C-alpha cells in the first residue's frame, strides 16, 4: 500500500523515522509547501494533496497539525485508511485555550523568530522523555521556519471543521498535554504516551498500524 505521511507543526519527515513497515509498503512524505497569504487550513491541505496518486489505494498518516490536514484531505480524496496520531479531527476537540486564543487574536502578538534553544519545560510539555528525545526535539524546532509556524497556528485557530469524515482511526497518548484526550472518539490509547510518542513510542504505534492494515 502507498502511505502518505504528514508531519506535525514544528516537525518534518524525520519524526517518523522510528516507525517500521513491511517491505512492500511504499512510503511518501507530503513535505511542507509555502502557504499563500491568509490561506485557510482546508485550502492548504488540498494543495498539499496534489502530489497524492489517488488512482491506487492509499493511506494517510497525519501527526498533530498533520492530522488536521489529513482530515481535510480525507473528506475529498477518500483514502483507504486515514490515521490521526496525537491529533483532532474537528475544531470542537481543540483544547479550550486554543479556542480562546483564536477568539482574542493572540497569534498576532507572537513574533516569527526561530528559537536558539528549547526550554526544558517546553520539551517536557510535548512529552520528551530522554536526552535522545530532547536533542532530536530541539533539532526539529530549530529547523522549523518560524513564519510557517505562525501561519499554521493562525490557520488552526481559524479552522472551522465541525464533522469528521467517516473511517478515521485515531491514536492518542494518555499523557498528551498539547492535544489531550477529550470527549471525542479515540480508537487506540498509548498508555503514558505524550505528544511526542510518534518518536519515543514508535514500536507501539507500528503494531497498531499493522493491526489496522497500514503496514
Offer a quick outline of the entry.
The chain contains eight helices and six strands. The protein is α/β, with parallel strands linked by helices.
Plain-language structure description:
By secondary structure, the chain is α/β, with parallel strands linked by helices. The protein has one domain (about 1-210): Rossmann fold. It has 8 helices and 6 strands. A 6-stranded parallel beta sheet has the order 2-1-3-4-5-6, with helices on both faces. Helix 2 (about 65-75) links the parallel strand 3 (about 60-65) and strand 4 (about 80-85). Helix 1 (about 40-50) crosses helix 2. The chain is globular and about 45 Å long. The mean pLDDT is about 90.
Layout of strands and helices, then pairs:
Layout: E1 2-6, E2 26-29, H1 41-48, E3 58-63, H2 65-77, E4 81-85, H3 96-104, H4 120-125, H5 131-143, H6 146-157, E5 168-173, E6 188-190, H7 197-200, H8 202-211
Approximate shape: globular
Strand order of the largest sheet: 2-1-3-4-5-6
Number of strands: 6
The topology string of helices and strands comes to EEHEHEHHHHEEHH
CATH superfamily: Alpha/Beta hydrolase fold, catalytic domain
Average pLDDT value? 89
The CATH architecture: 3-Layer(aba) Sandwich
The assigned structural class equals: alpha/beta
**Taking Cα atoms only, what radius of gyration do you get, to the nearest Å?**
16 Å
Find the CATH topology: Rossmann fold
